[in-house]
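I am writing to request your help with a piece of structural work I have in hand. I set the record out below, with my sincere thanks for your time.
___
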Amino acid sequence: MSNIKHQTSSEDMQKKKYPIRRPKRRFSNKSKENVLKMKPGADARLKKVFASIGVPEQGAFKPDDFQLEAISAIERADCLVTAPTGAGKTWIAEKAIARILEKDGKSWYASPLKALTNSKYAEFGEIFGTGNVGILTGDRKENPDAPVIVGTTEILRNQLYDAMHEGKDLSTDFVILDEAHFLGDEDRGVVWEEIMIYLPARIPLLMLSATIGNADQIAGWLATIRSKECSVITETKRTVPLFPLFFHPSGMLLPLLSENAPGEKTTLYKKVSNYITSKNAPVLAPGRGLPPVGDILRVLKKYNLLPAIFFLKSRADCDKSLTFCGKNSLDDPERQARLSQRVQELAGQSEHIARHRHLKELENLAVGSHHSGQLPAWKLVIETLMTEGLLDAVFATSTVAAGVNFPARTIVFFNSDRFNGREFLPLTPTEFHQMTGRAGRRGMDNIGFAVGIPGKFMDTRLIATLVKAPPSYVLSQIRINFSMVLNLLLSHTPDQIEDLLKKSFATYMIMKGKKKRKAQRLIGNEHKYLWKDFLKHFNFLQETGYVTEDGELTHDGVWASQLRVDQPLMIAEGFRLGLFPESDPVLLAAIIASFVNEQESDDRPDKEVVPQKLLSALNRVKEGLRPFAKHKILRGFEPRALFLRPAATIYAWAAEADWEDVLPFSEMAEGNLAMLILRTADNLRHIRALDHVFPKAAETSAKAIELIMRDPVAAFYEL
């Protein structure tokens, strides 16, 4: 509830700055729509701009001033670096880690995404030597005692829980939080905030982020709770300048903005303004059809604007776009030969990738699609080829903008809004700048381009506003959950936990922020709310025997705290009641899968093809947990439903059924099925760690992990 309130507040703040001007989604009469035959062209004003396209002169690397300032700052204080995407923030981390290594110290580099973590692991291995770098993501645990650890933020947070419980200091001398603006992420921001609160003050903290509107406020909060200075290093200038363009349906490229004097209000280029205000303006595609991306690609190629990333609204649009690119080909035979060679090398490491339905387009047309519905291994192939400069275009959903590093010369917008998992909302400045941050490759481009494509879902005026909009504010997303309460009670009394909650960023915004009244109006008295919510969870844990009357964890509470998963209490209760099949790895994997599935499911699979033993086992778990679930509901907690289809899907996969048979039964996209398997494996790892309490279940969990972590899911780590 707290998290929802924050998100709404953040959106309300955003709406006041940048009012929603979502274009009307009209259903026009196709016969009346004017679709022009496309002919490449460029406005005269672009002649000088396009003349600057090219590769910068290669010389000795010279760090920017902000990079040197950051290196100096972290010698004496914590440091928050905010800079545009691609500005070179990782260089700062590399130099800081090198300094720690010279002193025989240890560093911890935390990132939000497993894909980004894997990428940094490989990158740091080349820089510091593979023997000096380890990785911890839950899925991977390699060289965990190395002096440089790369891992996900959740793993770092869990290590802090363990250190507090054992009364030890975290075994590192330096922590780097990449993508620190995730502090304001609705779903995962709580993890960033917990790390910042729990991290011992003796350990220097370097935070790397996209530009943040209230960086000074975040630094002030950290200085207060850590009793040490936190320097803010801000860089607003892009390493590669960005020029925004507008794509007229005729094929004519236009500047998006007028050439206004510095300080003047941003206005649309006159020809663009005339187009969007015209009542009978031509369109790129009739009705709700996808624009002719192949023709758009041809125009961009003529003016040397490739490679490009096309941001589209849906997975289906990304895949469908490939069918429009049949006439695209690489003009350079040598580059075409290198592309074919690399595709074969990468695809050859997985039989599923080698048979991928888009392999032909990738190898012959130099185009690919990239979205969350794909296998992680396939996405890695696309990222690798794009990074190596072998593709002309990637068609992607906006999720590719966050944390995946494959820039291009040009990014192309088809929409001015973005789906947040529940609804379409206008792009925020942070989202827009993160996407445009992919335009222009450092050391490879003199200039980058952002091209707006007119259509039913494009608000051109909003895009024009966002080009020079100040960065968004980051608001606290801290919330209470059972895993947090159990883990804090391992090492703190309730009174001490109340003091910790007073250290939240939300509380600081209210009590000491520059906009105190505004924060109070938007968020409320956060400390009191958090404390009330903590007591609600605490009281439930007492009622159910996980916490004593004195506020300490019982034996069950201690081992349940190690279940750092989404539904720790439901799984813990299942073990307390002896409901799980502790001797059958296939059946255990299937039952655990029903606890991790997040999406609504068609839970009416043909039960004739579902093994009776699975039906019986799942019904036993459901019936056994029903009283506990009712108790949760009575106390204001909403338990998730346990679905049959994901359980049956994982049962078939663990029983060594072929991927091609499991996939259609799952009724999921490949990427979603892979995610279900990965999350099931992660839950099983937490059960495996309970070998001192449930040795048989732990042993069975280990076997279950081996059964489900196979190609094509495991291929992700082999490419």
Observations:
- The longest helix spans residues 612-634.
- The CA atoms of residues 71 and 681 lie 39 Å apart.
- The two ends are 41 Å apart (CA to CA).
